[in-house]
Write a structure and sequence with these properties.
The strands form five sheets. This protein has a five-stranded mixed β-sheet with strand order 1-3-2-4-5, with helices on both faces. The chain has helices at about 5-10, 35-50, 85-95, 100-110, 130-145, 160-170, 180-195, 220-230, 250-260, 300-315, 335-345, 355-365, 385-390, 395-405, 415-430, 435, 475-485, 510-530; strands at about 25-30, 55-60, 70-75, 120-125, 150-155, 210-215, 235-240, 275, 285-290, 295-300, 325-330, 350, 370, 380, 445-450, 460, 465-470, 490-495, 500-505. The chain is built from 18 helices and 19 strands. It binds 2-acetamido-2-deoxy-1-O-phosphono-alpha-D-galactopyranose (NG1) and zinc ion (ZN).
Length: about 525
């Protein structure tokens, strides 16, 4: 450790005696409680970098959560989420006393036989939260305490850090590990697919203009920077671009959970809208329907279906048919989407627990894995074998596929990349957002949460679709669901990012769905507070 270790430690002392765990998306809590965690994770990042002998990433963000929250995610060498086997080490280091810290680090070095002479290269980025700058300094202190080398990306989106980590670790084969490199790679691919003057060219029902709700976050800043690289290929208007409060009544999470447009936005028929979340790794599309005049939303499920059906068509036109193309979802996927994928698209669909790491991991097992959480976080992974097969293919459409692959940020869900992917597909199909929406009709659904004393009393199985403990809770949920008839479904699970239990319900009408969600929430509440005999 660095000779100034104690000095750096005292700058970032642990003043809060509260347990915090590395959850679904790393650490996430009130920003004022995170200083010591950031410092310790900076140290840990240097150790992880030495173990894997590669560049590691750190992103400071609390994504779609409120401005006063913050968080930290660690990014492994291929740009993927931290290896789950290290999550317990993170949790352990985050919760010990300052006095135990140095000994614990030395023990970890010994246990894992970490070669401290290896150069530890850590790439770091942060979002626009007012606390992010201070917390970012704490991570840098940690990296210095661990004698690591910092590569400071400053203000960036989460997917930009994932992208850059992979670029470093592939010797730039994946792209240039800079922000400009990111913009160039994506813009070049988009322009090749859509034309330099795409913004002037209407393709049947496709109009080349979008309105982006930037959630008052980093995505708004970055898409504006990217405009100069995209040139005339797409018309982009950005709203909620930083003048308001981050994620407040706007952004992808607000639109998805509230099932309505961002506050103060008067939707116009014929316009295509989309919302990013606070760190630009989620995207949700929406519009005002010409026929019924209502707000309609196209979520991660509909995005996955659009992308998978497009890829299926392209693969068949280049005559590559024996490819394992699959879609990965979570229990939150709308039942209509799963039904459409299985029965109309006729593609395999896999359900995994919530959290991108689970989806990403399953997608990597396929030749082409399309994965999306219903909340709009997702991407596509292509195996090297598949990319090589497409490269060897002489059919002219294969070039289109290769450009498409370049447009995808394969490391993680990326709102900017996903938007460009979706826009390219809609243009290629000559479709409006309304045409796309007509693929299937979502079952009415509701997502609510109940605050409980200890969310971890609930454990789940079957990809979170069934409660294992407390015993008896699942029977109660089953009995409630049965009252609502076919196509009704509900499940509960402890959130990995908030002190809450989430309740999901789906049924044939919105009224039934809301009442189903409330009934299930009530049994969870009663269970948590000792009412109802569980
Ligand atoms: P939790 O709080 O574990 O439900 C939420 C999202 C996840 C994921 C993480 C990380 C829902 C229902 N859950 O996790 O999908 O995106 O945040 O941001 O949307
Ligand atoms: Zn996010």
């Amino acid at each position: 450790m660095n000779e100034n270790f104690n000095q750096l430690l005292s700058k970032n002392a642990r003043n809060i005696d509260k347990f915090i765990a590395y959850g679904t998306a790393g650490f996430r809590d009130k920003a004022i409680e995170l200083q010591h965690i950031m410092f310790r994770m900076g140290i840990l990042a240097t150790l992880r970098a030495r173990v894997v002998k590669a560049t590691i990433g750190v992103m400071i963000t609390a994504s779609h959560n409120p401005e006063e929250d913050n968080g930290l995610k660690l990014i492994d060498p291929k740009g993927e989420m931290l290896d789950p086997s290290w999550e317990s080490i993170c949790t352990y280091l985050a919760n010990i006393n300052d006095k135990e810290l140095l000994d614990s680090i030395n023990k970890l070095i010994e246990d894992k036989s970490i070669d401290m002479s290896v150069v530890a290269h850590v790439l770091i980025g942060r979002d626009t939260r007012s606390s992010s700058e201070r917390l970012h300094k704490a991570v840098i202190d940690g990296i210095q305490a661990g004698d690591g080398r910092v590569n400071d990306f400053g203000l960036v989106t989460t997917p930009q850090v994932h992208y850059a980590v992979l670029c470093f670790n592939t010797n730039e084969e994946y792209g240039e590990p800079t922000e400009v490199g990111y913009y160039k790679k994506l813009s070049n691919a988009f322009i090749k697919l859509n034309g330099e003057n795409g913004s002037q060219i209407v393709a049947n029902n496709y109009i080349p203009s979008v309105v982006i709700d930037g959630a008052n976050g980093i995505g708004a800043i970055k898409i504006k920077q990217m405009k100069q690289f995209l040139g005339n290929s797409l018309n982009i208007e950005v709203i909620n671009d930083g003048n308001g409060v981050l994620n407040a009544f706007c952004g992808a999470d607000f639109v998805k959970v509230q099932q309505r447009a961002p506050k103060d936005l008067q939707l116009e028929v014929g316009k295509r809208y989309l919302a990013f979340d606070g760190d630009a790794d989620r995207i949700i599309y929406f519009y005002k329907n010409q026929i019924d005049g209502y707000f309609h939303m196209l979520d991660g499920d509909k995005i996955a279906v659009l992308i998978a059906s497009y890829l299926k068509d392209l693969l068949s036109s280049v005559q590559i048919s024996d490819i394992d193309l699959c879609i990965v979802q979570t229990a939150y996927a709308n039942g209509s989407s799963t039904n459409y994928i299985e029965n109309i698209l006729k593609l395999p669909v896999h359900c995994v627990p919530t959290g991108v790491k689970h989806l990403h991991h399953r997608a990597l097992q396929a030749d082409i894995g399309v994965y999306f959480e219903a909340n709009g976080h997702g991407t596509v992974t292509f195996s090297n074998k598949t990319v090589n097969r497409i490269k060897l293919c002489s059919h002219e459409t294969s070039l289109k596929l290769l450009n498409f692959i370049d447009l995808v940020n394969q490391t993680v869900g990326d709102a900017i990349s996903d938007m460009l992917v979706i826009e390219s597909i809609l243009r290629s199909k000559g479709q409006s957002i309304q045409d796309w929406d007509m693929l299937y009709t979502d079952l009415p659904n509701r997502n609510i949460k109940v605050t409980v004393k200890d969310r971890n009393v609930i454990t789940t199985g079957d990809a979170e679709r069934k409660v294992l403990t407390p015993i008896g809770l699942q029977d109660k949920i089953d009995a409630i669901v049965a009252k609502y008839g076919p196509n009704s479904r509900s499940f509960v699970r402890p959130s990995g990012t908030e002190d809450a239990v989430r309740i999901y319900a789906e049924s044939t009408t919105q009224d039934n769905t809301d009442s189903l969600a409330k009934e299930v929430a009530k049994v969870v509440y009663d269970m948590a507070y000792g009412v109802g005999g569980l």
